[in-house]
Amino acid sequence: MSTAITPQLHAAEPLPFFGRAIDIDTHEMIPFHMWPEYYGQQVADRLKGLENNRFFNDNGGNTIVRPDITSDSTEISPETVWNTKGVAAPGAFDMRRRCEVLDAMGVSRSLLFPGFGLTALLMRTAPEWVAAAMDLGMDAAGTRELGIMALDASNQLMVDKIVGLDAARVRKVVVLPTENLDDMMRDMTRFLEQGARAVWVPSGMPPAGTSPADRRLDDFWRLAADNDVPVLLHIGTDFTFPASGNWPANVPAFVPPQASAEFVISPYAGATLSFAIENFLATMVLGGVFERVPHLRFGAVELGAQWLGSFAERLDLWAKIYPGALKGVLSMTPSEYLARNVRVTPFHFEPVDVYLERYPELVSCYSYSSDYPHVEGGTDTMRKLYSKVAPLGDDVVEKFFVENGAWLTPGA
């Protein structure tokens, strides 16, 4: 389940930022039969039905029902870290090997997202959809109850059970549900005490049932900012954003032709995947969150970058049209808040060079990510993206691969 590429690519001179690059999207990927060891027997037993679900047992290189994988033992080399995908990739689930993987990639620091945590969060926040799609043999209420338990197990893995790694280099991300503000504050405080370095919140629902820019949430944003903990949105949590899931229904062209570990891949899904994040960020920027909490670190991860420039232009336009409404709310243009506070990750196939030339005022936003070890992350992406960015100059290269990602991985 690996894809070979031309070996000569790795025989080239090291990239100028090798050893200093920052990767703001990596994942754990644990084989299904090992879930009892990592998440507890009770949770694993209740999720046993997923073994027969196509998303888990027939998902191309992202398939996690792999009883043939008995250990994390694939050799770590430049070829394997850039080409071997899924649970067979080196360091996919034995995090004691992950820093050596980063060394082979030339990465100094990374964010580590929980793959299982996404499944658990969807069970908790979109139980009707999960009950229908994953056929767990339980109703929506039972799915949600199990999702709460599974999400606790995922977060416990991230903050407590994953050991033997350099926590400064591999920044563990926890999933923070946002159903009500009291729980958000309690959970954030607990995660900070447990050493979490970043929090992932859902993009498809208003936090605490209100606008992200509601001043009642300022203490939450400030708690994250004061502790240098970035708040992240990541693909896969927007199922609750559209009022109906039937927009792509009964259209053959919208049937997913590819496998993904986190989301549906189709022309329609790709063209609309930024809608939830744009909505979330529009409220935060125009509602003054980044004005009131100027040191808040915010990331939109694995959501592409094609949307950012036009989104910034749109915010600037409407802020200019309604200066009275925003008087005393904003002291800068919306695009300036984006440039200061927000980081996004282009997909490896995007023309990021075009974006950087077209929107130089947003050069601080675009950041490198590998999506390791997921198939959709692509192969040899660091070198491929470097070939696009390098003609724009050393300063842009340094920002894209090092400086911009540092905003989401602060401190030592």
Key features?
40% helix; seven-stranded parallel beta sheet; alpha/beta; 9% strand; disordered N terminus; 7 strands; 412 residues; TIM Barrel
Could you characterize what this model shows?
With 412 residues, the protein is an alpha/beta fold. The chain has one domain: Metal-dependent hydrolases (TIM Barrel, Alpha-Beta Barrel). It is built from 18 helices and seven strands. It has helices at 35-39, 41-46, 54-57, 78-83, 98-105, 115-125, 127-134, 140-161, 181-193, 218-226, 267-272, 275-286, 289-292, 308-321, 334-341, 352-358, 381-389, 394-406, and strands at 21-28, 107-114, 170-175, 198-200, 231-234, 298-301, 342-344. Strands 1-2-3-4-5-6-7 form a seven-stranded parallel sheet. Helix 7 crosses helix 8 (140-161), helix 9 (181-193) runs parallel beside helix 10 and helix 12 (275-286) runs parallel beside helix 14. The chain is globular.
What's the helix and strand layout?
Blueprint: E1 21-28, H1 35-39, H2 41-46, H3 54-57, H4 78-83, H5 98-105, E2 107-114, H6 115-125, H7 127-134, H8 140-161, E3 170-175, H9 181-193, E4 198-200, H10 218-226, E5 231-234, H11 267-272, H12 275-286, H13 289-292, E6 298-301, H14 308-321, H15 334-341, E7 342-344, H16 352-358, H17 381-389, H18 394-406
Helix pairs in contact: 6-7, 6-8, 7-8, 9-10, 12-14
The gist of it:
The chain has 412 residues and is an alpha/beta fold.
Oligomer: single chain
Quantity of strands, as a count: 7
Report the mean per-residue pLDDT as an integer.
94
Q: What is the N-to-C order of secondary-structure elements (H for helix, E for strand)? A: EHHHHHEHHHEHEHEHHHEHHEHHH
Q: What is the CA–CA distance across the termini?
A: 36 Å
Overall SS class: alpha/beta
Q: What count of helical segments does DSSP give?
A: 18
CATH fold annotation? TIM Barrel
CATH superfamily: Metal-dependent hydrolases
